[in-house]
Design a protein that fits this description.
heterodimer; A: 329 residues; mainly alpha; 2% strand; globular; B: alpha/beta; Rossmann fold; 6-stranded mixed sheet; 4-stranded antiparallel sheet
């Protein structure tokens, strides 16, 4: 500090400083390697049709993972996301099919329910100061129970068109792409910009990084937290709509794998479970990694139990990498 | 500049401040010293808005102010560098400098889409850090990659950048080695030379005597004395602090 003269960086250090850290490029590299591997193992893997299929399989958990990323960036975790999403899809389907509500109003009501659950999580975490783990474990069970009671555990079919829109496709060349995939990519792009380019984005990182510092710098940490959980609820609601559109039914058993799959996607994407570090595009890549592995292993004829096994190993590898690469910092 | 008259703060049975006065003059470094339990940190908390005194008043430029919290104090132009620095370690220096006070792009991008003006914030950070002669290679690097002294530099620079009236530093050299302490002391002088008065809380007597223009000695919840470090021996100041010497009549 005594002199402004700073030794200029030279040689490999320049390169090392210019390259993004491992936590950012790691997921992209892993996805690339997985794609190369599966394209050698199965000649059906590297086709537009197959990638469209992967995208469809990924879009629900992909959108849930956006909400999950926001929550994890603040240092929290949301275990209820899949169940809240299932409740949202049941509300939408039930209102539209059995109660004769207009489809658009039904969608709005479904979104309202998931937003309420997100807000409730936020209030409990912020004002009652309960750990997010416990709060969302509670709301997980509440949302699951309400879903079962409200639907009487029955699948609801014969849905009206507006609920199915995002499952419909348009053609790019010979490949059919669903509108849901486009919506997912749009949401990622939008929230990537929000986190990168706005003060709100910086405040979310700051709250996850050092919430006391954020508070002392005049950031309302309560507003940030409640806002993040509520936004996550809205995203789960959008995921409800995608789930309904993809499967064509309101399924009370939906969302059970999405709870943990969304966390898997976020962690594989390089976002730290300790909060304050990570980026949203990583979660998309993380969701794609899980999707690619499931798809590729299916094409190779590997039983789905082994796919779950491999996903589990991937998550532990990702968290371990996170821990080890940040030990130096 | 910043004054306090008859501050009282009680915590249950304990009286932490017992009618304490305080005076900070324009363009000076005022050190505040005192034994543990003398009410030193309570006094500073009252001045930085962290607590509200039960009695007495705080005057800024002669006008009474009520500081309802650290953020309110900042609004009045009083910036505090906390002992734990209050920085977000994974965020860059520029992001930390503007944390909670981000600049937005001009025009619709800024007002409607609320897009940050990262270039301007980075440029101002570089200019400001160069002005204070804090030699850090890149303002885009994360604060956690910096040494302890550099981090302190970032926190001090942030306060100096935004303070209009006063910068309060709480034990800025406590966790630092000799070389880094000297860098931080040099930085504190530069902040004063820019025209901002500095309140320095420290246990380190050599540092206090090296840098302070005046020394406020707190004892038993009151201001025991204000001394000039050039007129008094370090041992006498410590004696006043511990009560071994009576306070000089003229404070």
């Amino acid at each position: 500090m005594t002199a402004p003269a700073v030794a200029p960086a030279r040689g490999w250090r320049v390169l090392a400083e210019r390259l993004p850290p491992l936590s950012i490029i790691g997921p992209f590299v892993a996805l690339f390697i997985a794609c190369v591997f599966f394209s050698f193992e199965s000649d059906r893997f590297l086709t537009g049709q197959n990638f469209s299929l992967i995208a469809q399989q990924v879009m629900v958990v992909g959108v849930v993972a956006i909400g999950q990323t926001f929550v994890i960036l603040t240092g929290g975790i949301d275990l209820a996301c899949g169940m809240v999403m299932a409740l949202g899809s049941i509300v939408m389907a039930k209102l539209a099919v059995e109660l004769g509500v207009s489809p658009h109003a039904a969608i709005a009501c479904g979104l309202l329910v998931t937003v309420f659950f997100g807000w409730l999580n936020g209030v409990l975490v912020t004002f009652v100061r309960l750990p997010p783990f416990i709060v969302t474990l509670g709301t997980l069970n509440i949302a699951f129970a309400i879903t079962q009671i409200y639907s009487k555990a029955q699948t609801i079919s014969d849905l009206p068109d507006p609920l199915l829109f995002f499952g419909e496709t348009f053609q790019i060349g010979s490949t059919a792409v669903t509108y849901g995939t486009v919506l997912m990519l749009f949401l990622y792009l939008m929230f990537w910009l929000v986190l990168r380019e706005t003060a709100v984005g910086k405040h979310i990182y700051a709250v996850g990084n050092n919430s006391e510092a954020a508070r002392l710098m005049g950031i309302s940490t309560r507003r940030v937290l409640i806002g993040v959980y509520t936004l996550a609820g809205l995203l789960y609601g959008i995921a409800s709509l995608l789930a309904v559109a993809r499967t064509g039914v309101g399924d009370p058993q939906a969302g059970q794998t999405d709870n943990l799959d969304s966390i898997t996607a976020v962690v594989l994407g390089g976002t730290s479970l300790f909060g304050g570090r990570g980026m949203i595009m990583g979660s998309l890549v993380g969701a794609l990694i899980v999707g690619v592995f499931r798809n590729g292993l299916t094409l190779m004829g590997v039983a789905s139990v082994y796919q779950i096994l491999i996903t589990g190993i991937l998550v532990i590898l990702a968290v371990a990498t996170d821990r080890i690469t940040r030990r130096g910092a | 500049m910043l004054q306090a008259r008859g501050l009282v703060k009680r915590y249950g049975q304990v009286t932490a401040l017992d009618g304490s006065d305080f005076d900070l003059l324009r363009g000076e470094i005022l050190a505040v010293i005192g034994d543990n339990g003398a009410g030193k940190s309570t006094l500073i908390k009252a001045l930085s808005g962290a607590i509200m005194p039960d009695e007495g008043e705080i005057l800024l430029d002669g006008a009474p102010v009520k500081l309802r919290g650290p953020i309110d104090a900042r609004r009045h132009g009083i910036e505090t560098v906390y002992q734990d620095l209050a920085v977000a370690p994974a965020m860059s220096i520029a992001e930390n400098l503007f944390l909670g006070r981000e600049l937005r792009r001009p025009g619709i991008l800024g007002s409607v889409f609320r897009v940050l003006d990262k270039k301007k914030m980075l440029a101002q950070t570089i200019a400001f850090m160069a002005d204070l002669q804090i030699g850090i290679r890149s303002m885009k690097q994360a604060v956690e990659t910096l040494s302890g002294g550099q981090r302190q530099g970032v926190a001090v620079a942030r306060s100096a950048a935004f303070a209009r009236h006063v910068v309060i530093l709480d034990e800025p050299t406590a966790a630092l080695g000799v070389k880094e302490s000297n860098m931080v002391l040099e930085l504190i002088r530069r902040v004063r030379d820019r025209g901002l008065p500095v309140i320095l809380i420290s246990h380190n007597m050599p540092h206090v005597f090296e840098i302070a223009d005046r020394i406020h000695i707190q004892r038993l919840g009151k201001r025991a004395a204000v001394v000039n470090p050039r007129d008094i021996k370090m041992s006498d100041a410590v004696a006043i602090m511990t009560g071994a010497l009576p306070s000089p009549a003229a404070t």
